[in-house]
Amino acid sequence: MQVTRSVEISAPIGDVWAIVSDIEHSDSIISGIKKVEILEPAKGPSIVGLKWRETREMMGKDAAEVMWITDAAEASYYETRAESHGSIYTSRIALETTSSGTKLTMDFIGQPVTFTARLLWSLTGWIAKSALRKTIDKDLDDIKHSAEKARS
Q: Model pTM?
């Protein structure tokens, strides 16, 4: 399953990067995140290696996932990975300068690796994909609101 969503933000790329790369405080920006717990800080000046547990409410229950940053280029992109319930999840947050500010894109890929996960995805994947689109859109809108509010 792959989902790609974007939003245009009327703020410079540096301001947007400051928000999206501040994982530790993302629960104060993104309304869908209930809690962030840093498990391993990044080593060095890059955010690569940062590992955290993120708690969200999913289908009426708290769901916590451990994620880590696998690659990054400051003010350009970062990539994350998570492994859960027989699947591997990767995402890429990318920023691009536009004439009006910044284009922020999130690309999410979920790959079932176990038999059970493949079976569940074949039965319910379309529901999950729809819910995921809505979740990503809301996250991007929260980031947009925060960046644009900071500019005014």
A: 0.91
